[in-house]
Amino acid sequence: MNVWAIAKRDFGSYFRSPIAYVVLSIFLLLTGFLFWNGAFDTQSRASMTALFGPMPLILSFFAPAITMGLLADERGTGSIELLTTLPLRDWEIILGKYLAAVGLYTLGVALTLPYVVTIAKLGPLDLGPALAGYLGLLLMGYVYLAIGLMASAFTRHQIVAFIVGLGLCFLFFLWSMMIPALPRGLKVVAQYLAVDRHLRQMADGQLDPRSLVYLLSLAALPLVIAWQSLESRRWTA
Amino acid sequence: MPEPREMISVDHLTKRYGPHTAVNDISFSVDKGQVLGFLGPNGAGKSTTMKILTTFLSPTAGRARIAGLDVWDHPLEVRRKIGYLPEDTPLYKDMAIAEYLAFVCEVRKLPRSSRKAAVRRVAEQCGIADVAGKPIGSLSRGYRQRVGLAQALVHEPDVLILDEPTSGLDPNQIVEIRQLIRDIGRDKTVILSTHILPEVNATCGRVIIISDGRLVADGKPDDLMASEKTNRYRVLYASDGGAGGAEAALDEKVVQGKLAALPGVKSATRYDSESKTLGFHVTSDGATDLRRPLFQCAVDEKWPLLELDRMEASLEEVFRRLTRNDADENAAAGAKPGASS
Fold it and tell me: Which of B25, B126, B237, B279 has the smallest number of CB atoms closer than 10 Å to its CB?
């Protein structure tokens, strides 16, 4: 399967360079600190809420860092010419690269599980909210990775891809801060659109199907745009 | 569907980048078993044409077909049929050669069982078998070029499109790669671009010269050279007066004066020849064949004539005449867009 071949190659490429090791170790360092700092709430019940608060901010940096090279580097070095003249469909390339990034991020999140086990040993952990929170964490990461990949599709410079991706992800973080200033009618809409609010809800154990729909479509949209950007080389006649 | 004989056909192809026309109404076709040399100065439109043939870019106007399939309508089928070596060989530097070729095999859908054999075959062919474990980024330019060729050959494509395949290779490697291309060209179809003229003579049965996006010549290298009439001759005399000084030594000034005075001679200039000889380049006015007068003159004057020949036009001269005209016209029109290839 073509998507799988691309995903394998790009995932492997993270580990052939220092990228994977740097991203994973710094990610674990930061999340480890957040776990340790806020593992217990005021009733000294184990909780993971403290972890999820700063996550949108942390992911705003990590997601574009993971995705910035995926297409920008191919454009920069010209290897995109060989890639796109292989018998591959453009969406297969985009999806394959996205899955490589998703794989690295999921690995990073999976490596935080020992923290959870530690917390659960120290105090009673409410499993439902923990699982829902993790699902939210993964989905939010997938949204940010899609945004990062989209930014990478438009440029040949990795730094540009990173900054644009960071800016867009950061806007989602700022979004919920703007909500109080909005008129009453817009507030409902704005709250539904705020990514971190969905994450917080899930961390509280509320698994709203609307959240899933919203996050999944929010991940799909940038991928479609990235796909069109790649395809546009053939249309700019 | 029977395989069409015409493996590549380009029909009034035009590509514009904004106001700049990179490829201007080019038409040609290449048959199975032909090696076509694509010749032109840098920025003439060679690479752009190749990028269209390989489905990387779309044409602004006109059509291009590979094995009867339109590159615009059937990009995937076209990509399966071609092997492509882009300019500057942009490969994944972090991957090892074998790893990279395995990736290409996988995407090219070679049956799992035959992948190892295919990789071994092209690694042997391209002389990279003993470095197959090395990361591509650590290779020299020449080796990287061979890896580029290997990935283009691994699925045994019907059509090979090679953008400057020998650039960056040392002379021995160049000879090897040319031999390889000739071998492949016997039953496949090959287009290779170059701005190195001897390459065309050595490898291609046919040459197309493009300049400033336009096709300016199409034919066999020998025919193109023959079509270029030359009016230059070369004569070489012994000047040491023979064994034991039996004859008078030749004086440069005298010989030159006599040659220049021959009817139909425009100029005679000395060139550096081996010692104890006197060599001249003689140019005619164009109408006269000077071989007979030059011979007769040597007999009459008793100059010991060692060599006499009419100089053949080189492909360089054909190329320069065809491509310079265009540049001059452009300069006159005051328009020389920043050409990108």
Answer: B25
